[in-house]
Amino acid sequence: MDTRSHTFSKERLDEFRQIFEFYDVDNNRIMDMGDLDVALRALGFSPSESEVEDVIALMDVDGDKTIDFTEFCMIIEYLQFKKGKYGELREAFRSLDLCNEGLVLEDDVTQMLTSHAKEMTLKEINDLIRFTKTDELDTINYSKFVDAVEKADCDKNNDKDEDTFK
Ligand SMILES: [Ca+2]
Ligand SMILES: [Ca+2]
User: Fold this and answer.
1) Which end of the chain has a smaller Cβ tally under 10 Å, C or N?
2) For the chain, which residues score pLDDT lower than 50?
3) Among 14, 15, 54, 21, which residue's Cα sits nearest to residue 35?
């Protein structure tokens, strides 16, 4: 990871430490997946089970399938980063999803993206819409859409990020 690892204030680190210790019930200074899930929720994140698995796979540096405090901080940092960058987009979609079905109208999406994702070109938006279109007329699956935006973004930055995870 890059210098973002050093951006936590001492207060934040103390808070993480307290949460870590609180949820490390058996006090062996590591968290298993279940502990981590509860701790992340306590910190205001709401990852799905597969997301928790994903971040563990990504952040479990020493590969022991459990999370020590250093890894824990990295996970929070990663989730904060993700939440900050795409959370807003996801929220915006959610507000359009009146029936709560995970589906939004294609027109609404185009309109929203032109105001929310200014760095995206109309062609990129249309490509993504085509990719995430559902069988139902003129609707898209927005969860799939945000994932696709994120992936496109990751691919774009791949050269830069490659070194930071070593
Ligand atoms: Ca433990
Ligand atoms: Ca580990």
Assistant:
1) C
2) 1-5, 161-166
3) 21
